[in-house]
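Thread: quick sanity check before group meeting

JM: Hey all, I'm pulling together slides for Thursday and realized we never actually wrote out the predicted structure for the chain we discussed last week. Dropping the sequence here so it's in one place. If anyone has concerns about the input, flag it before I start.
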Amino acid sequence: MISLRRHLCSVQRLSSRVHHSTLLRAACSNRTYCTDKPMVNVHQAGVSKPGLVPSLSPFGIKLMTYLRMVNIPYQIHSETFRRGPKGKIPWITYKGQSMGDSGLIMEFLNEEFGVDLDSPLSEKERAISRAFIKMLEESTYWGIGYDRWQENYSHLGQLFEVPSAVRLFIFPTFSRNVRKMLHVQGLGRHSTEEIHGIIHKDVWAASEFLGNKRYFMGEEPTAADPTVFGMFAEFLWTTPEHSHLYKLTNEQYPNIKDYCFRMREQYWPDWDEIVGTKK
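JM (edit): ok, ran it. Output follows.
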């Protein structure tokens, strides 16, 4: 136990170093929503292996992409075990206030900064956007949990930059917890084949609706795009090549892959630098 505590402390120190070296700010140039308001502090799960994604949570990528889209300056704090006020990752602190849940955070910041990515949409289009966001966050997301923490558990060592003792003692606990959550949510009550079928239909629906559009809802970016990009970025860049999720986005539905590359190019020009593939 003493040895485990020592390893956990080393992870905390590593996260602290990542915090000091990872300062991300939305560039205030040629954007409608440039502001001189205080910095938003984003607390997210760290520490991923180099060359992957800015966050191993689709909600972390969602939130940071939103902040970049509306040009709100932010700073990253990598957290190893600490959770936000709702017990979730990510969360923010802003003007001394802590807030959890990426969707509620976006609503709060929309009001605080006077922005609305959905302004080009009709009421019907807003309803469609809402339905797809909830499908991805309340159904598809659990496919990532199943793929990562159950079906491809042996791949975890390729994702997280943590000491071997953490993988040995903490990962099995997380895996059991995810299994319980999957069972309560409902997806975990199905066979692997059935789970694949459910997630496949989600991805098919998103791909069909996306079609050849530049953004998910049309030719202008909207509030759906951070969620869509965040979710499928995890499919594309964190799953092993034999994974069902990897094959869906890299082979069966290439328009989703193309969409993710467009979003990354437009809103994450510093992606390679952030994830450690470019010095």
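AS: nice. The mean pLDDT is 87. The radius of gyration is 18 Å.
JM: adding both to the slides.
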